[in-house]
Amino acid sequence: MTETYNPDSVAEIGHNSGATEGRGGEPLRPLARLANLVDRARRDEALLEFMLANVETLNERLNVIRRELIPDVMREMQLTKVKMNDGAVVELGTQVHASIIGDDEPFKWLDANGFGGLIKTDVIVQYNGDKRATANDLVVRLKNEKIVDEDASIVSKASVHASTLKSWVRERFKNNETVPVEYFNTSSFVEAKIKEKK
């Protein structure tokens, strides 16, 4: 037996995607339940698209409020920290953005200036899929004998974790020390942090 979709026979569709009864309390047939679920999926997809499209705009608005408007008013009041009537605490603090420019020179500079401990190096050895046993043997050999197999493709990548770099730059700024602009993109700004009452 083939059922056809008839919107009049479907229960009112709201946010209850698990509706199993129609308007009169009678059980919904599978096609009616399916219609409810498809409608819910369409509504949720549309809501998700709307929310994703507006995330960037909301972030920009929030940044203007936290980085410009609130700090301006608090400076006008000559405050760096204030407790609101509802118990929330608003405090101004300096935030830092930092990133590395280039592949090799920034790491040489960090090493040469005593900051090599910030650097983490990943070594990746790649084998074709049919050489898994050889790859596993290599892991054992690397641990035991500290050698690298000749027919392995080896990639070595140095990096500084983003939060480590940020902390390091913040500390240097705090101590009035410079960061070489040819190796690091940096910026600092005042931002209001709002801590809700617990």
Topology:
Layout: H1 30-76, E1 81-83, E2 89-100, H2 105-112, E3 120-126, H3 132-145, E4 153-159, H4 162-174, E5 184-195
Antiparallel strand pairs: 1-2, 2-5, 3-4
What does this molecule look like?
The protein is of the alpha+beta class and 198 residues long. Among the domains are: 7-72; 123-155, no CATH class. Helix content is 41%, strand content 21%. The protein contains four helices and five strands. It has helices at 30-76, 105-112, 132-145, 162-174; strands spanning 81-83, 89-100, 120-126, 153-159, 184-195. A three-stranded antiparallel beta sheet has the order 1-2-5. It has a two-stranded antiparallel ribbon with strand order 3-4. Strand 1 and strand 2 (89-100) form a beta hairpin. Mean pLDDT is 84; it is low at 1-17.
What does this entry show, briefly?
It contains four helices and five strands. It is an alpha+beta fold and 198 residues long.
Major sheet strand order: 1-2-5
Low-confidence stretches: 1-17
Binned, the helix content reads 40-55%
Radius of gyration: 29 Å
Order of helices and strands: HEEHEHEHE
Q: Give the overall shape, derived from the CA principal axes.
A: flat
How many β-strand runs? 5
User: How many helical elements?
Assistant: 4
Distance between the termini: 60 Å
Content-based structural category? alpha+beta
- Overall average pLDDT: 84
Beta-strand residue percentage: 15-25%
Largest sheet: 3 strands, antiparallel
